[in-house]
Amino acid sequence: MTARVSGKYIVMLNKDRRSLFMTIKLKIKDNKRKRRSHRINLVILSVIAIMIVVALGLIVNSFSGSTSASPNLLKKKDKVEAEVSISTIESEFPGIQIRTETLDDANKPFTLSYPRSEHEAFNDQVSSYIEEWKTRYAAVQEETKSATPNGLTISFDTVEHSSGTYSFVVTSSMSMSGDEQQDIRTFRLNPQSGTELQIADVVDQNVEKLKRLTKAVRDSIYNDSKLQDTIRVDNVWLATEPVWRNYRNFALSDDSLIFYYETGVLAEKKQGPVTVQVPLQKVNPFLANKYQVAVEPSSEKLVSLTFDDGPDPRYTEKILASLEKYDAKATFFMLGSRVEKYPEMAKKVVAAGHEVGNHSWNHPPLTGLTDEQLHVEVKGTEDVILRVTGQHATVFRPPYGLVDQRVRESSKLPVVLWSIDTLDWKHRNAKKMLENVETHAKHNSIVLMHDIQESTARGIDPVLEFFHSQGYKFVTVSEIDEY
Ligand code: ZN
Q: What distance in angstroms lies between residue 285's CA and the mean position of ligand 1's atoms?
């Protein structure tokens, strides 16, 4: 920007580097300034800057008659700028229109298509997202004035659920200086009722169910071959913690829940936004009735053997050897204090491919503790398990099965109790343990045992043999999806 001061102000605006100069003559007399020398100092420059803004306003006003656009200085200062055209058409989904805004400008084009409905709250939500992108795009224009042309495209897909809820999956893609930035944002609306579907509605407002959903989401991420080279393992755990905000960007179809994570969160940036698909079949027991699907009865019988209160230097290893004979995977609910004391044993459990659960630090009844004590028991154990074994505990079993809302909330892990109590700690009798199991065994049984009991280490083989002979498959407790 250059300026010359005389009886009149002549202001020249350098428009980008397109050598487009706009000369504006201002009919403003300023006697005081007349007397000043021609030396341009900073004060004058800033006065001029203010006047330019004022002048631009005046100029635009002088083009009255064609003032349909909003009073936006950015748009108005350039009269050669292309107009934004807006069209709205009906979509194939009743109650939903498609609005498209297009700017046909070679240097900064955009095409923005997004859903509209009869519901203000929904429209506002979508609009503010679109505005966010426009602002970001304008900022990029500022930064990259001289670089290659930029572009912004926003489009959307509609995912239907038979409940009448639509999930709009809005994909935004901005190119700048040859680089691409992508984002996926979802909006869910039932156009009949005007309600927005939240993930809490899908899992019955129940955090324990969200914790189970978390497991399915993590499994899906870890097993996604597309992510193998780019996954950010350390980030996945936190980004998928079972708190509502980690699950708010989702779509619901009649057979799956689809979650979207921002670029750089679950995987390296080059991967773009990550889509995680969870079949409803896999999480069916954790869904609100309305969203459950018909599940084909499995012919497979599952059982989960669980071992509490260890690890133990005398018996845990013996139990590991027995499990291996049957190619059985089990779950060990460990005490933090014992993991610290017998780290090698804890590591052996993990190395053998078993699941590790949190069973508190010292085995107190957790419901009677202060918040601070509870935190030490629960968090301290989760921390030591991770530190010693390199793996997160994935399930939580409060001692004695004593649990209330506060205890549940003390951990982000699902609370898992049992369905068959072998009472091995009480009778210390291998034969009785087997009888107990034989009497109560059924599909999805969770068997409670203790790897600190000699009788259990001795009696585990017959238990394994029994389930094996009955055609059961041994799985970790996380794979038992009964709630
Ligand atoms: Zn216990």
A: 27
Beta bridge partners of 15: 20
3-class SS of residue 480: coil
Q: What is the pLDDT of residues 201-216, one digit of tens each?
A: 999 999 999 999 999 9
Query: How far, in whole angstroms, is CA 137 from its chain's centroid?
Result: 24
Residue 219 tokens read as: 């499994």
Q: With beta carbons less than 8 A apart as the criterion, state whether 395 and 413 touch.
A: yes
Active-site residue list: 308, 450
CA 335–ligand 1 middle distance (angstroms):
8
Separation of CA 360 and ligand 1 centre (Å): 9
Q: How far is the CA of 309 from the centre of ligand 1 (A)?
A: 5
Q: Assign 422 to helix, strand or coil.
A: coil
Residue 368 is encoded by which pair of tokens?
Answer: 């009677």
CA dist., res. 98 & res. 116, Å (int):
6
Tokens of 181: 């930035």
Ligand 1 center–CA 413 separation, angstroms: 17
The DSSP element (H or E) to which 92 belongs, if any, is: none
pLDDT at 44: 52
For residues 476 and 444, is the Cβ–Cβ distance under 8 A? no
Asked if residue 218 lies in contact with residue 240, where contact means CB atoms within 8 angstroms, the answer is yes
Query: Is the pLDDT confidence value at 135 over 90?
Result: yes
Nearest to 249 by CA among 182, 199, 190, 174: 199
How many angstroms separate the alpha carbon of residue 333 from the centre of ligand 1? 8
Return the bridge partners of 156, or none. Answer: 170
**Spatial distance between the Cα atoms of 406 and 360, rounded to a whole number of angstroms:** 14
- CA 107 from centre of chain: 35
pLDDT of 389 > 50? The answer is yes
CA 380 to chain centre: 26
d(CA 381, CA 375): 10
Report the distance separating Cα 10 and Cα 153, nearest Å. Answer: 40
Is 378's pLDDT higher than 70?
yes
HSE-up (13 A, CA, CB side) for residue 397: 28
For residue 397, report the distance from its CA to the centre of ligand 1, in Å. 8
DSSP characters for 168-219?
EEEEEEEEETTEEEEEEEEEEE-TTT-PPP-HHHHTTT-HHHHHHHHHHHHH
Cβ-based neighbours of 237, under 8 Å, separated by 6 or more = 218, 392
Record the pTM.
Answer: 0.79
Q: And the tokens for 423?
A: 């009472």
The dihedral sign for the CA sequence 394, 399, 402, 403:
negative
Residue whose entry in the numeric block shows the structure tokens 């203010």:
50
As given in the structure block, the two tokens for residue 99 are 């609005």
Provide the residue type at 212 as one letter. Answer: R
In angstroms, how far apart are the furthest CA atoms of the chain? 112
